[in-house]
Amino acid sequence: MEHLELFLKSIFIDNMVFATFLGMCSYLAVSKKVTTAVGLGAAVIFVLAITVPLNWLLDQYLLQPGALAWLGAEYADYDLSFLSFIMFIATIATMVQLVEIVVEKFSPSLYNSLGIFLPLIAVNCAILGGSLFMQSREIATLGLATTYGVGSGIGWFLAILAIAAIREKIRYSNVPPALRGLGITFIITGLMAIGFMSFGGMLTGGDDEGQKEETKSAQVETLNDTETELANNTKVIE
Amino acid sequence: MGLLSKKDAKLITDPLADNNPITIQVLGICSALAITAELEASIVMSVSVLFVLGVGNVVISLMRNIIPSKIRIIVQLIVVATLVIIVDLVLKAFAYELSKTLSVFVGLIITNCIIMGRFEAFALGNSPWRSFLDGIGNAAGYGVILIIVGFFRELLGSGTLLGIPVLGDPIEKTGLYSIGYENNGFMLLSPMALIVVGIIIWVQRSRNKALIED
């Protein structure tokens, strides 16, 4: 149940592209054709599913305050969390290279379809973002971290698939010249993001709200500021 | 400009408008949009990127002849990650509240495509001084868009600028609010950032027809 909830949440509510704008660069650059979009999307799911759990282990046993306690009592008060950026990105970069080599060796056909996108992925913000959100949301177990990675990947995949399909169609529409290409893509993405906001209510109506509140409080922190401001505004308007 | 030759000055002025990293080169959108609900956060983000890109470009340019091209991506990532850790620690020390607002987006400067893009496209092939100017120019171009977006979102969304109310008091109904004006809370939500950038692109390309795509 917990897994399903996190899975749906990371696909729809906290969608990488529409809620946090991660991976926008490749999202905009590689979404001209559906086939390439599918390739990149699949590569993102693949890499996120590997790096998020891996970085979870790193975070849990190396980086968190007190994480080194397994080495012995004298290491218990070490706090290496300031190193997390460099550790995460190094893990991601090496994993991407490793995956590339392995895929090339064992599945040339998969390599041909994913291959050109893999190097791009090392610098895709969605990948690092996945690990950083995993850290700041304090995801509790390795299994949940994997679910989160796969879910976020699928969310990203859906987003790029949708925009690629729309962009293929929109070529036949009469868009104002100055908006053609990039401009209209931005505006469509904005409209799609508004659509995705309607998923926000999907998982809020539970009965064990109080219990969930605690784990979630860290998760929503990033969006909290805008939300409280919004709440203030609506109050004011009333 | 006495200090800069014409060619060098162009490195700074070009990215501000006609070769803007966000609206023309489509780089660095990721972190640009999420933190622009307030002007202050936009400014801090721009300054952070300015620092990372300026210094990073110089470092990469100094090392350009000794980096083996096969592992250059990893070397670049390590350089950026180190600089970003510095920025993150400084922010945590001197502006803790703000670093909470920016949350993971400071870390995401690492994968900001502008930075890797400029390293690849410029710093690997040019002298440190020129790379520095290029870095400053591109970061400034990025900052300009961020600040414009932040300005409009904060002004229309909450009626404040840098947290100071400029349109009057919405509760006391003073200033603009006395004639029935209301804040558009929608501007604070993330989708509006995309639409505002879309509009900026529209305005820019309408003014400069050469930039229009096919």
Automatic annotation (TrEMBL), chain A:
Give the record's GO biological process terms.
respiratory electron transport chain; sodium ion transport
Chief place of localization: membrane
Reactions performed catalytically: a ubiquinone + n Na(+)(in) + NADH + H(+) = a ubiquinol + n Na(+)(out) + NAD(+)
Enumerate the GO terms in the molecular function aspect.
oxidoreductase activity, acting on NAD(P)H, quinone or similar compound as acceptor
Spell out the InterPro entries in the cross-references.
Answer: NqrDE/RnfAE (IPR003667), NqrDE/RnfAE_oxidrdctase (IPR050133), NqrE (IPR010967)
The EC number of this protein is 7.2.1.1
Q: Where is this protein localized, as stated in its record?
A: Cell membrane; Endomembrane system
Q: Known Pfam families for this protein?
A: Rnf-Nqr
Q: Does the keyword NAD apply?
A: yes
A GO CC annotation recorded here is: endomembrane system
Q: Which organism is it from?
A: Bizionia echini
Give the family this protein belongs to, as stated in its UniProt record: Belongs to the NqrDE/RnfAE family.
Q: What does this protein do?
A: NQR complex catalyzes the reduction of ubiquinone-1 to ubiquinol by two successive reactions, coupled with the transport of Na(+) ions from the cytoplasm to the periplasm. NqrA to NqrE are probably involved in the second step, the conversion of ubisemiquinone to ubiquinol.
Q: Which gene produces this protein?
A: nqrE
Which UniProt keyword terms apply here?
Cell inner membrane, Cell membrane, Ion transport, Membrane, NAD, Sodium, Sodium transport, Translocase, Transmembrane, Transmembrane helix, Transport, Ubiquinone
Q: What is the recorded membrane topology of this protein? A: Multi-pass membrane protein
The portions of this protein that span the membrane are 6-30, 37-58, 78-103, 110-133, 139-166, 178-199
Subunit notes for this chain?
Answer: Composed of six subunits; NqrA, NqrB, NqrC, NqrD, NqrE and NqrF.
Is Lipid metabolism given among the entry's keywords? no
Q: What sort of enzyme, by top EC class, is this?
A: translocase
Name of the protein in question: Na(+)-translocating NADH-quinone reductase subunit E
Q: Which domain of life is it from?
A: Bacteria
TrEMBL record, chain B:
Task: Give a GO molecular function annotation for the protein.
Answer: oxidoreductase activity, acting on NAD(P)H, quinone or similar compound as acceptor
What membrane topology is annotated for this entry?
Answer: Multi-pass membrane protein
Arranged from A to Z, the UniProt key words for this protein are: Cell inner membrane, Cell membrane, Ion transport, Membrane, NAD, Sodium, Sodium transport, Translocase, Transmembrane, Transmembrane helix, Transport, Ubiquinone
Q: Which organism is it from?
A: Bizionia echini
Which cellular compartments is it found in? Cell membrane; Endomembrane system
* Catalysed reactions, semicolon-separated: a ubiquinone + n Na(+)(in) + NADH + H(+) = a ubiquinol + n Na(+)(out) + NAD(+)
GO BP annotation list: sodium ion transport
Indicate where this protein is primarily found. membrane
- PANTHER family named among the record's database cross-references: ELECTRON TRANSPORT COMPLEX PROTEIN RNFE, NA(+)-TRANSLOCATING NADH-QUINONE REDUCTASE SUBUNIT D
Q: Where are the transmembrane segments?
A: 43-62, 74-95, 101-119, 131-152, 185-203
What name goes with this protein?
Answer: Na(+)-translocating NADH-quinone reductase subunit D
Enzyme Commission designation: 7.2.1.1
- Lineage top rank: taxon: Bacteria
By its UniProt entry, which Pfam families does this protein fall under? Answer: Rnf-Nqr
Question: What protein family does this chain belong to?
Answer: Belongs to the NqrDE/RnfAE family.
Q: Give a Gene Ontology cellular component term annotated to this protein.
A: endomembrane system
**What is the role of the protein in this entry?**
NQR complex catalyzes the reduction of ubiquinone-1 to ubiquinol by two successive reactions, coupled with the transport of Na(+) ions from the cytoplasm to the periplasm. NqrA to NqrE are probably involved in the second step, the conversion of ubisemiquinone to ubiquinol.
On assembly, the entry states: Composed of six subunits; NqrA, NqrB, NqrC, NqrD, NqrE and NqrF.
